[in-house]
User: Which sequence fits this backbone?
């Protein structure tokens, strides 16, 4: 098992603390089946021995929180993707989380260096709303642990203001609520992200890993994605079903297959 | 944030995203810091195909880096041109923007960068 990155420097008063959902993402992304999928998708073809590698995959986590997932993927890129030259970046709506996640990635990379092992190439963390600041069709792997808990209301998104709110219990509670409160069915934020996927994912290689809980109605979500067209696939690739209860979690992988255009060509 | 990040970012204002002027964002009054990293030609080769070269030419010139050639070098050209290799290594892998702004040429909105974190949250009137 790959080591979990350290988040001991993170202030969990206002930043989501790694929990069962975060660890399910780590376990799923480093599972044998997902390593095989990702390595097949992003490593060099076997047909031509002298071929150059395919271009570096661009891996983005939306809603990094402490950065435990992004730093894990970056630090263990070689094990997960079969290549260390991935480009990693993160987005979070909470500025404090952005700073913490940047630090978490840097600590994890230093630990890899100390062990004489490789790590990915980290670009940075930006503050923002979901994929709003990302250029279309650039993301090869998108990872999202959403605010998935059903709540009566969705907290308002922070907007830009020059004065930074003084630290207070209310401000901290608000920032934390952004990390878990999902509105109706816990899906209001995830729905916005899903709607943006066809545009933000790269055409040939794009895929996404999204965490859902049972109240999010994962079967409906997967069916909705398949309804986008024959080239779209959605499958459950990880779950923490043993404990049962209302917060049963699963990870769905969403991806596009290339073969459609070839199938449609006359023989 | 690495300068290379700009290759993946655009203006977050909805009306801008479909316009060509929203990319690349233009650095303004930026403070740069440089990490010292070992040469990594393989990484550079594998990143180059991801880069919008015309945008990088603009970014490099706006940040005061040496003028880039009009077309991206092939791996073979890079291997035979240590100076170009070093310049791209410095620009793409080592240089970070720590403070300043990123400006959209379409709507003129300035995204502030503080302590290496660019803030793409929008003011109320642009959401
Ligand atoms: Zn704009």
Assistant:
């Amino acid at each position: 098992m790959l080591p979990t990155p350290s988040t001991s420097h993170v202030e969990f008063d206002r930043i989501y603390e790694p929990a069962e959902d975060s660890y399910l993402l780590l376990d799923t992304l480093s599972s044998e089946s997902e390593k095989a999928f990702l390595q097949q998708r992003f490593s060099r073809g076997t047909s031509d021995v002298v071929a150059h590698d395919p271009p570096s995959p661009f891996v983005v986590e939306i809603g990094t929180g402490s950065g435990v997932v992004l730093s894990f993927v970056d630090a263990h890129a070689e094990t997960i993707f079969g290549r260390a030259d991935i480009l990693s970046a993160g987005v979070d709506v909470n500025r404090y989380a952005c700073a913490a996640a940047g630090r978490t990635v840097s600590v994890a990379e230093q630990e890899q260096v100390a062990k004489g092992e490789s790590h990915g190439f980290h670009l940075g963390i930006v503050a923002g709303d979901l994929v709003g600041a990302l250029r279309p069709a650039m993301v090869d792997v998108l990872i999202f642990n959403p605010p998935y808990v059903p709540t009566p209301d969705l907290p308002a998104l922070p907007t830009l203001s020059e004065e930074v709110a003084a630290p207070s219990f209310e401000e901290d509670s608000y920032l934390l609520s952004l990390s878990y409160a999902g509105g109706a069915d816990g899906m209001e934020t995830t729905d916005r992200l899903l709607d943006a996927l066809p545009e933000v994912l790269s055409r040939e290689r794009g895929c996404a890993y999204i965490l859902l809980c049972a109240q999010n109605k994962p079967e409906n979500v997967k069916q909705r994605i398949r309804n986008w067209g024959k080239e779209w696939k959605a499958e459950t690739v990880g779950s923490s079903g043993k404990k049962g209860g209302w917060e049963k979690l699963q990870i769905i992988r969403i991806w596009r297959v290339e073969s459609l255009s070839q199938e449609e060509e006359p023989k | 944030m690495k300068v290379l990040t700009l290759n993946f970012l655009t203006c977050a204002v909805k009306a801008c995203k479909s316009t060509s002027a929203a990319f690349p964002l233009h650095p303004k009054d930026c403070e740069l810091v440089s990490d010292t990293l070992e040469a990594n030609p393989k990484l550079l080769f594998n990143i180059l195909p991801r880069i919008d070269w015309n945008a990088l030419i603009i970014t490099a010139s706006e940040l005061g880096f040496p003028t880039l050639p009009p077309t991206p070098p092939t791996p073979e050209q890079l291997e035979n041109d240590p100076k170009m290799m070093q310049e791209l290594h410095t620009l793409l892998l080592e240089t970070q923007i720590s403070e300043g702004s990123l400006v959209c040429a379409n709507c003129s909105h300035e995204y502030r960068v503080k302590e290496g974190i660019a803030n793409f949250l929008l003011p109320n009137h642009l959401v």
User: Anything to note?
Assistant: The pocket of zinc ion is lined by residues B 11, 13, 16, 22, 104, 106-107, 109 (CB under 6 Å). Chain B has a mean pLDDT of 95.
